[in-house]
Amino acid sequence: MKIFRTIQDYRAWRADEKSRIGFVPTMGALHDGHASLLHASRDQGLKTVLSIFVNPTQFGPNEDFSKYPRTEEKDLEIAKVAGVDAVFLPSVEEMYPENYSTYIEETRLSVPLCGKFRPGHFRGVTTIVYRLFQIIQPSKAFFGLKDLQQFLVLKKMVEDLNLPLTLEGVPTLREPDGLALSSRNRYLSTEDRLRAASIYRNLTALCDRTATFESAWQDLEKQGFKVQYLEERNTADLSPASGEEKESAIFFAGFLNQTRLIDNVIRRKPNL
Ligand code: AMP
Predict the structure, then answer these.
(1) Residue nearest to atom 6 of ligand 1 (CA)
(2) Atom nearest to 143 CA in ligand 1
(3) Cα 96 to ligand 1 centre (Å)
């Protein structure tokens, strides 16, 4: 497994690489959810490139950038086991030299939900992912549906800017009690970890129409969550669900003490 820390070194390898490349961008602190993206790429016969970069521009001033878990040695072990061909592991200085001043912004799908509660977040995400696409030069990139809004924003960026690659969304990997795997789950106390299962329980109840948004919101607050949003939206454009759309998703974000968790479930209309 090759490891590259500079753009120049990666480019030298890429120049001689004739195979199609499958790309999995991450912020590290890898878990089985990340591994499922790596396997999706490997299973399609693609040479697989993983990037690990905790991107400062997608964190707000009061968010957890400096505290975000960094577990490089373990990440490289997981990558090796998953059959990764190359890892791109740049420093902050490599990606944002002192005079850096160019940003990419999607202006519709990035407005509601996390866009409302994390100003500047998606601008940071689209900027870094666009630049990683330019560096890595993949045929295909894999993203988790756990971050569904992120996936939809990035798909729109690829479409609007005619980028020469396709994106694939990979289903959310969950713990046995339904909690979506996340690098941030490690911040949860034992008690909060148990309470966090109420996210998926409520999302599935809303999806089955066995709960109302009011009762689900109340239940989550009773479990200790400070709910930011709990909303159903059309996955085509993230407009509020009308009941007429082919596919919608129910989105959640909230804090359990200091830890912010997000999740969603996708709801397909039968016979449409
Ligand atoms: P992150 O390192 O949190 O930025 O995530 C890197 C990629 O892994 C993103 O495309 C995430 O959507 C994806 N991912 C994170 N958690 C999961 C999960 N539980 N199941 C599937 N994909 C995930």
Answers:
(1) 26
(2) 10
(3) 23
Give catalytic residue positions: 34
Residue nearest to atom 13 of ligand 1 (CA): 144
Q: pLDDT tens, 127-147? A: 999 999 999 999 999 999 999
| 62, amino acid identity | N
State the average pLDDT for the chain.
Answer: 97
Count Cβ atoms below 10 Å from residue 55 Cβ, excluding itself. Answer: 21
Q: In angstroms, how far is the first alpha carbon of the chain from the final one? A: 45
Cα-to-chain-centroid distance, residue 97: 25
Distance CA 170, CA 43 (A): 13
Three-class DSSP labels, 199-219: HHHHHHHHHCCCCCHHHHHHH
Single pTM value for the model: 0.98
Find out whether 150 and 157 touch, Cβ atoms under 8 Å.
no
From 37, 68, 128, the mutation candidate for ligand 1 (largest count of ligand atoms within 8 A of CB) is: 37
Nearest CA to ligand 1 atom 5: 26
- 3-state secondary structure (DSSP) of residue 40: helix
- Report the alpha-carbon distance of residue 74 to residue 105 in Å, rounded: 33
Q: Give the separation between CA 213 and CA 205, rounded to whole angstroms.
A: 10
Q: How far is the CA of 98 from the centre of ligand 1 (A)?
A: 29
Q: Find out whether 53 and 75 touch, Cβ atoms under 8 Å.
A: no
What is the helix (H) or strand (E) element at residue 143, kind and residue range? strand 140-144
* Cβ atoms 68, 27 nearer than 8 A: yes
> Which of ligand 1's atoms lies nearest the C-alpha of 142?
10
As a whole number of angstroms, the distance between CA 112 and CA 108 comes to 8
